[in-house]
Structure formats: C-alpha cells, structure tokens
Design a protein that fits this description.
Helices cover 11% and strands 30% of the residues. By secondary structure, it is mainly beta.
Length: 731
C-alpha cells in the first residue's frame, strides 16, 4: 500500500461562469465539479444587434416566434420566418456577388411600427444587410380596403400586381418615399430613412403631415433587391449573375422580383413538414402577393392596445441569437448553410404546459436533407409532447447536412439554452431521438454527453457519419464512429429501430452497434457491454418505410416514460476520444458525471482512434452493478419486427467503503469529484487502480485537490483525510 505525501495544487479544477438566473433552474445543476455538456449550454444570451431597439421610439422586446404579430403600448410588430426568401415557386436565386448580397439580403425578420403624435415610424429588420442599398421594401396600403379602387401597379414596379393600392411606403435603405395614388397617377414625397448595418435595420419616419393613417388599413409587405441603376427592383433572369438574381420563368415577360412577403400567419410549416415559404412561393407563382394582405389596426396602435397572436402551446417556429460569428446570410457552397446570427428551430409546447410546473424536454433531431420543420404537425411530436408533458424541440442545426458535428452540434445546445431561457424545464427529465441522420445525432449526443439524457431512441440511425459497414470506417470518417466510445452510455437505455432492407443505412452497422461481438479495431455493442437496449429489426422495411415511425411513435411514448437522467451514478465508464472534439467551438468531450478533465497518456494508443477510458466504481454508497439479461421478442406495430434486448435486474447492495475501484486505459490524467462519487472526505479514501500507463488522478473535495501519481499495473493508494482537507500532490 502506498501512502502519499502531497502539497497544495489547483490543477484540473475549472469552473465556468454560472448560468443566467432566469434559466439556472431549467438547466442541469451539479453540486460541484464539471457540469454536464459544453459551456454553451449554460452561456448567457449573446448581444444580438438585430434584436436591439436603437431608436427610443421602439421599446418593446422582440417576439422571436415566426408568423405572429403583436400590438403593445403604441407599437405594432410582425415577425416573419427566417431563410424563407426564395420568391415565386421557391425558384429565385440571389446574385452570385456574395460579398454584396450574402445570398439573403431580401429576407425580412421583423416589421415594427411606432405611433407618435407627429409621425409614424416604420422599422424593417433584415436577416442580412451587408450594404445600405441592396434591399428594397414596399409596404403597400389599401386604405379604404376596397380592391376595386386604387392602383394594382406600384410606383417602383416589382413585377407583381397589388390590387386596390392607394398608398405605398417604399425604402431602399439610402432613401425612402411615401406615394399616394390620385386616381390617375402616383405622387411621391421623400421621407427620412436611416440604415443601421450592424443591426440590419432600415428605419423610416413618415410625418403625419405626409400620411396620417387612421382606422384599419389593409397592407401587403414585399421585399426584394434594389436596382441602383433604375431605382427600382432588380428583376431576375433565368440564371443568376453577379449583379442580377436568377430563377425567372423563361415564358414570363414580366417576372416578379419579390423574394419575401410579410403577414404570413398561416404557413403550412406550422402544421406539416413544409418549407417556411411554401404558401408564399405559391402566391408569388400565381402573381398574387395580395393573398397575404393584412389589416393593420392603426386605431389600436394609437390607443396603445395590447394584444398578440403569439401562441402559448402547440407548434411554433422560433429563432435564437447565436453566439457564433459566421458572417451573414446563406452559404451558397456548403455547410453551415445558414450563417447569420439568428437561427430558427421548431418547438412543440404541450397544451397543459404551466410555467409553475417544470416540463420534461425531448430533442427530436431531423434527418439528412431535412430541416427543423420535418416533424411539425406529426402525430409523433404530439405524442411525445402531450402524453409525456414534454416540450419537443427540433433544431435547424445550421442546415440539412451537418451530421450534428461542429456548428450543427453547437446549434443543438444553443436551442436547448434558448428553450430553457423561455420555458420552465425539468433538467432531470430529458430524452433524445431522431430519424436517419437524426438517429446518428442521437447516438452522438448520448455517447459524448451521457449525463444529459435519460433515454434515447434511434430510427434507422447510422452509428457513424454516412454509411458504415464494419469493419471499414464510416464514409464520413472514423472520428465520427460512436461505436468507438459506446461504453459511455452505461446509464442510458436505448431503443434502436432498423430496417433490414435499408439501402442508406446498411443493416450491418446497426447490427454491430447493438448485438455485434466485441472484437478487433475496438468494435463493441450494447449487447457485448451488457447495457440496456432494445434492437428492433423490420425484415420487410427499407429506409423510408420506417420514416413513419418518426411521425407516429407508438413505441416511443411507453419506452421514454419520464426519461429520468442519472446524474451521479456509483459506476462511471467514460471514454474520451479527442478526434471527436471541436476545440475552437468549445466542444471538448472530456467529462461526464463526476469524472472530468480526462487526457490521454499516449496520443498514439487506441484502435483505431486514440482514446482514454476511465472505468471507476465508487463503493461509498453500497451500490453494485445489476445483472444483465438478454431477451428476444416479436411485434407487429407498425409492421412485423424481431427484437433483441437486454434488461437489468435489481440493483444489488455491496459493503460500503470509502473506496474507488478504477481501471484506467491510456489515461494520462483524470479528475474525480469525491462528493459526487459519494465519498466522505473526512475519512481516508482508498483508490484501487489498474492502469495501463503512468498518469495522474486528481481527487477533488470541497475545493481542495489531491493529485495522485498512478503507476502502470495494479496498486492501492491511500489519500488521507488530512491531505483531503489541505490539498496536495504526490512527491
């Protein structure tokens, strides 16, 4: 037995800033040591210029729920959808000059109006605005709400009719005008416009001596690209050039230049898997922008009436301010596809939600080629939400093909953070699921962050990025293969659904992940590890057959239950694989439960990826490992399937001892939190360690750190209570 002499040391103990008080109770908390997940999950809200009121005429905060409006204390706001700017038939493409147009310069975020005694202020917030004069906005009014009067042609023609228009506010950033139809022609009066390129806002002031809106005026809002040469709208051609948009119908001699329409309160995205501009695209293809004409109640605005259409439950499309700076607009050449600071996501809020009673939370990750709206309106989301009293979020993940890595991984945690900031969540009731690529995301998040989730379900999910047919590496790279660190999910039961005839996710990969033998190249499985899982294989199904399970989840509701997270288990198995990290984004997967700061002893050791594995069992609470039993079953819903599973028996008791029993494989260093492991730091602590390499174990208790030098082989180390009280390290 080695008795260690030690001196004070603070190595290995890091504490991130505390979460905002408003979200602290909705996010995971631990008594000490490393928090579950990355720091971004707990980060305070970032500064977001687009969401700031920089003009004292505007005071109300943003409603970040798309397709809604609000009247509040003399202000009106309409919030549009993001990245919904594809014009007629969803065909328009931006000019190829990315530096000027950002592939997104006609994307409306919000219209805001403020009623003052001597003027009405109008503010247009855009998703991207790189230069002052790229965008043109027309707010067309039918003041008498009679389509038979007025003009159908706007003074600066966008190529679409606006029946009944008799007043128009037009701005192109560097200028603005109020135009009035006199029965025969338009007369226009210049009005003041101001551009804020940091906030992507154009603000126009219209004196009441120029226009004095009263009562209810019907309005149509259109956004496009400004043509500095003509002062009008940039008209599209068949193919985009550096200066002109593309996508026009060749037979259309007067193509519409409108990219985005406002006042779209009933886009199909809110009730089905549909792009956020599906109804807009159809209206513009029919040359009918006035299909979205909407009454603005100036009387309510003047009276300071408060009312809103922001829903309190059901499906909503929200957006968040990201902490990442990736530029503006859309990426026309790869991932991430959406660059701007504002990022959308879908959220289902159950009808019984009450902020006084924290709700469970389920992440439902979208598949390859899909987006955050994939599951909107589905029976499955309603089942997950209503029957389990869960909020269900589907992140956009910065595009349809990010494979939940890098910015896509980061976005998922930003979504979780944003939901927690606006709703009361129970951080101990969290579940994770996804279809296809979303199934990979489920494997990835559960294995890299096992102390965040209670249960996980994959539907035709590949264990690695792309196609994986073992023993070969996945097509997306061996560093994406979750099978390499599958040992991390000791405390997360999985339900994995696979199609035997799957042409996109060959059955060999899911089979190895679930029931394959442990073998060369580090291959393992839930079965070989003795972990809890259910592996359902559908003999007659191919990949898309089981898409139905992502929209109607009869197995999921009963499987998930309340999905309780195990936060501080007696037995922790955790493997750290640096190749899975993105350090630049703070996505370092080196901690879980009461184990943190794991580092490799030898960066060349591991097959096929370098990995350090900590397997440590605390005997302090007298809890042993349950027995694992293999089982088989069959079922018929929604199609016949075969099931192989493992369940655990009752948790046994073992003699209590202030002891940690650890196996360290290629571990250069690791930090263990004594209190969370159940140890009593007022007593001597015994470490029984088997190690493949020399390394260090840092035992932390009540802010004190004891550093223990570990030798290769098997040895017992004693950390005295005096050293635990003072801190120190091995001589």
């Amino acid at each position: 037995m080695a008795v260690l002499a030690m001196v004070a040391s603070g190595l290995g103990v890091t504490t991130a800033p505390p979460a905002d008080a408003s979200i602290a109770t909705s996010l995971p908390t631990v008594s000490s040591g490393a928090r579950p997940g990355p720091d971004v999950l707990y980060a305070p809200a970032p500064r977001a210029p687009q969401l700031e009121n920089r003009d004292d005429r505007f005071r109300q905060p943003y409603d970040r729920v798309s397709g809604t409006e609000r009247y509040a204390d003399g202000e009106y706001s309409y919030t549009d959808h993001l990245y919904d700017d594809t014009g007629a038939g969803a065909r328009l493409t931006y000019p190829t000059d990315q530096a000027r147009f950002a592939g997104n310069a006609a994307d409306l975020v919000e219209l805001r109006m403020a009623a003052e005694a001597d003027e009405v202020a109008y503010r247009f917030t855009l998703n991207a605005l790189v230069e002052s004069d790229t965008t043109i906005v027309a707010l067309a009014f039918d003041t008498d709400r009679n389509a038979e009067t007025g003009s159908a042609t706007l003074p600066r023609r966008p190529g679409s009719p606006f029946p009944g228009t008799d007043a128009v506010l037009t701005t192109w950033g560097t200028g603005a005008e109020w135009s009035r139809w006199n029965g025969m022609t338009w007369t226009s009066t210049p009005v003041a416009a101001r551009v804020d390129l940091e906030a992507n806002q154009i603000t126009v002031s219209v004196p009441r001596t120029v226009a004095d809106p009263r009562g209810s005026w019907r309005a149509t809002l259109a956004v496009g690209l400004h043509d500095p040469g003509t002062g009008g709208w940039l008209r599209p051609g068949a193919v985009a050039t550096t200066t002109h948009p593309g996508g026009a119908n060749l037979v259309d001699t007067d193509p519409s230049a409108i990219f985005n329409l406002g006042f779209r309160f009933d886009e199909p995205i809110l009730r089905s898997s549909a792009a956020p501009d599906e109804a807009q695209a159809a209206a513009l293809a029919d040359d009918a922008p006035a299909r979205f004409a909407h009454d603005i109640d100036f009387a309510a605005l003047d009276a300071g009436v408060d009312r809103t259409t922001v829903p309190t439950s059901g499906t909503m499309v929200r957006f968040l301010p990201s902490r990442l700076d990736r530029g503006e607009g859309k990426n026309l050449e790869g991932f991430p596809a959406t660059l701007g600071q504002l990022q959308p996501y879908s959220l289902y809020v159950p009808t019984g939600y009450d902020a006084a009673t924290p709700a469970g939370f389920t992440l439902d990750l979208h598949s390859l080629g899909e987006n955050h709206w994939q599951y909107n309106g589905s029976t499955g989301v309603q089942q997950l939400g209503e029957q389990r009293s869960n909020l269900v979020a589907t992140p956009h993940a910065r595009g349809e093909d990010g494979w939940y890595q890098h910015e896509a991984e980061y976005d998922v945690f930003e979504v979780w953070n944003d939901v927690a900031a606006h709703f009361a969540l129970d951080p101990d009731r969290v579940a994770l699921t996804g279809y296809s690529m979303g199934g990979y995301g489920t494997y990835r998040f559960a294995t890299l962050y096992p102390d965040l989730f209670g249960k996980a379900m994959t539907v035709v999910g590949p264990p690695g990025d792309g196609i994986w047919v073992p023993p070969a590496a996945p097509t997306g790279g061996i560093e994406t293969l979750t099978n390499q660190w599958l040992e991390n999910v000791r405390h997360i039961p999985f339900l994995n659904i696979a199609a035997v005839l799957d042409e996109l996710v060959p059955i060999a990969g899911p089979t190895q992940q679930n029931v394959g033998a442990a073998g060369p190249s580090g291959l393992q499985s839930f079965d070989s590890l003795g972990y809890r899982f259910r592996f359902q294989t559908f003999p007659t199904a191919e990949h898309l057959t089981l898409a139905l399970l992502s929209y109607n989840l009869p197995q999921a509701v009963s499987f998930f239950g309340d999905s309780r997270v195990v936060r501080d288990p007696a037995h922790v198995t955790f493997g750290y694989t640096p190749a899975a990290d993105d350090r630049a984004l703070g996505l370092v997967h080196d901690h879980a439960y009461w184990v943190s700061g794991v580092r490799l002893a030898d960066p060349a050791v591991g097959s096929p990826l370098p990995e350090a594995v900590v397997d440590v069992h605390s005997h302090a609470t007298g809890v042993g490992d349950p027995t694992s039993k293999r089982g088989t079953a069959t079922g018929t819903t929604p199609l016949p399937y075969d099931e192989i599973s493992r369940t655990w028996g009752p948790t046994p008791t073992i003699p209590k001892a202030n002891t940690l029993v650890a196996t360290l494989t290629n571990v250069g260093s690791a930090t263990l939190d004594a209190r969370r492991a159940g140890l009593d730091p007022r007593q001597n602590v015994t470490l029984e360690v088997s190690a493949t390499h020399a390394g260090k174990v840092r035992l932390v208790a009540d802010g004190k750190v004891v550093e223990v030098a570990i030798n290769p082989g098997t040895a017992t180390y004693t950390v005295t209570r005096a050293r635990l009280a003072s801190g120190g390290h091995a001589a």
